[in-house]
Amino acid sequence: MTLPYQGIQKWIEDGFINKNGPFLDGQIQPASIDCTLGNRVYRVTSSFLPKPGEKIVDILKAKTLYDFELVSGSILEPNACYVIPLQESLKIPVGFQAFSNPKSSIGRVDVFVRLLTDGNPQFDTVPEMYEGGLFLEVIPLTFMVAAAPGIALNQIRFRKSNAFFCSNDELKTAHEMEGLVFDIAGQKIAKPIINDNALFLTADLKNREVVGFRAKHNAGEVINLTKKNFYDPEKFWDQIKKPADEELILVPGDFYLLGSNERISVPPDYSAEMASYNPQS
Asked: Which CATH class is domain 5-160?
């Protein structure tokens, strides 16, 4: 079970989720909570994970090149690794774990973020009965970005430790009964790609004149992460026209946005999460 909005609200009331300051309108999502940046940035030598029992603040003392106050408009440079303490802290009760993922808007501007917690040698997970602060590793990969305290770059979901995951057969049955995967016209796909207990999506290279976008490496403007519907996309992206042979070669190191052939529907009794493509599947 993934904790819904009402459960997250109850956890806040019960002190399992705390924050240095008031929770914002819209911070609690239907099945997750947005985490917000604090007011200090640590530029570190490299990415790292703590050993069991090791505190993030102690590692920062050894790995920080310099630190600075995060104010509105603070610049984060491409391919530099930063660690930013978050305003939220957690006290995870018995029987639950937490999982972090980037906000979709952050992924679309190629900012790589991962959650760090004390004594936990895994990114993006918070173990059962963890009590302490949260830290975010932030690496802009393509664009120079401007950040500010209080903005959200990641979100956290809370899930029972013994959460149930659907098998291939159960996913096929759910698709037959409820409808999980649809084509671009909204028709249920007869035989969706189901493997390794997951639904697979494919890149659409034929149904639209512009099938995607490639990030420009020489964009001269800073992307301010506090602004929405503000920038001209052509300053940061090159359009990818529909290829005549319906094939596209991806250049290593370039960042792309591509649409999918499939449309997804999640029935009320289910929850779903996106996962990176596994080439061994």
From this structure: mainly beta
8: left (phi over 0), alpha (psi -120 to 50) or beta: alpha
CATH T-level assignment (fold) for domain 166-267: Deoxyuridine 5'-Triphosphate Nucleotidohydrolase; Chain A (2.70.40)
pLDDT digits (tens, 9 = 90+) for 18-67: 999 999 999 999 999 999 999 999 999 999 999 999 999 999 999 999 99
The beta strands (E) that lie in the chain are given as: 17-19, 33-36, 40-44, 64-69, 74-76, 82-91, 96-102, 111-116, 125-126, 131-140, 145-147, 152-160, 181-182, 194-195, 198-199, 210-215, 223-224, 237-241, 256-258, 263-264
pLDDT digits over 85-114, tens only? 999 999 999 999 999 999 999 999 999 999
User: What distance in Å separates the CA atoms of residue 138 and residue 82, rounded to the nearest whole number?
Assistant: 5
CA distance 88 to 96: 17
Q: Is the pTM of this model over 0.70?
A: yes
Phi, psi of 91 (to 5 degrees): -135, 90
Are 161 and 95 contacting, i.e. CB atoms less than 8 angstroms apart?
Answer: yes
pLDDT single digits (tens) 204-234? 999 999 999 999 988 889 999 999 999 999 9
Q: CATH 2.70.40.10 in the chain: give the residue spans.
A: 5-160, 166-267
- The Cα diameter of the chain in Å comes to 58
Q: One-letter amino acid identity for 209?
A: E
Do residues 130 and 92 make contact, with C-beta atoms less than 8 angstroms apart?
Answer: yes
Give 37's strand partners.
86
Rounded Cα–Cα distance for residues 35 and 134 (Å): 9
20: nearest Cα among 134, 157, 148: 134
